[in-house]
Amino acid sequence: MNKVYAIIGPPASGKTTLVKALNNYRIPAIISHTTRLPKKEEINGVDYHFVDKEVFLKLPMIEKVNYSGHFYGLSKDEVLSKVKESSISVVEVDLRGLEQLKKLLGERLTAIFLFADKETILNRYVLQGDNDQEINRRIEYAEAAGEFVNWQTADYVVKNTGQLDVTVRQVLAIMDVSWVKSEF
């Protein structure tokens, strides 16, 4: 049975970084769609599927959210395609997305909460160059959405406040994929 591992957690807990690191172990990511423009370093089809609002609204979505005036969402076709072609895949979602994936995938879905304390999160935002107003807005949004306590809905909790390779090894152990080789 093909499995999907959903990575959940508060903002700046390292979800995106972890998903990219797992790709180095040939674990494909289920890619979300967004209506925002790509950042300088982002690649269409790798980081997101960048589409305009008209296209986005026509897609059959499992979940979608409007954040800062842009839509983000996970298309049903993307999820089912990855489940069909990959024995293991990974997806970064919020709590609402996790609930919808559970309805669609049932026992094929395992949730991993990526824990980082607020001090670590604040330091990561500062290192990214975010201003105080943006940091506060993100933290308030995450607290209102329950992203600091959604570990209660996860099957596993992994602490991500230190070295990324330790976090990756812990997640690989949960996935029971010691057989994969890294492309590092």
N-to-C SSE string, H for helix and E for strand = EHEEHEEHEHEHHEH
The name of the CATH topology is Rossmann fold
Average pLDDT score: 89
Low-confidence stretches: none
Number of domains: 1
Strand content: 15-25%
Total count of helical runs of at least 4 residues: 7
Structural class: alpha/beta
What is the overall silhouette? globular
**CATH class type:** Alpha Beta
Query: Major β-sheet, in short?
Result: 4 strands, parallel
**Strand order, sheet with most strands:** 6-1-7-8
The end-to-end distance, rounded to whole angstroms, is 28 Å
What is the CATH H-level superfamily?
A: P-loop containing nucleotide triphosphate hydrolases
Portion of residues within helices:
25-40%
Reported CATH architecture: 3-Layer(aba) Sandwich
What's the total number of strands?
A: 8
CA-based gyration radius? 16 Å
Describe the protein in words.
Helix 1 crosses helix 7. This protein has a four-stranded parallel sheet with strand order 6-1-7-8, sandwiched between helices. Strands 3-2-5-4 form a four-stranded mixed sheet. Strand 4 and strand 5 (70-75) form a beta hairpin. The model has no long low-confidence stretch (mean pLDDT 89). The chain has a single domain, classed as 3-Layer(aba) Sandwich (Rossmann fold). It contains seven helices and eight strands. With 184 residues, it is of the alpha/beta class. 39% of the residues lie in helices and 21% in strands. The radius of gyration is 16 Å and the shape is globular. The protein has helices spanning 15-23, 53-58, 76-85, 95-105, 118-128, 132-144, 164-175; strands at residues 3-8, 33-34, 49-50, 61-67, 70-75, 88-92, 109-115, 156-159.
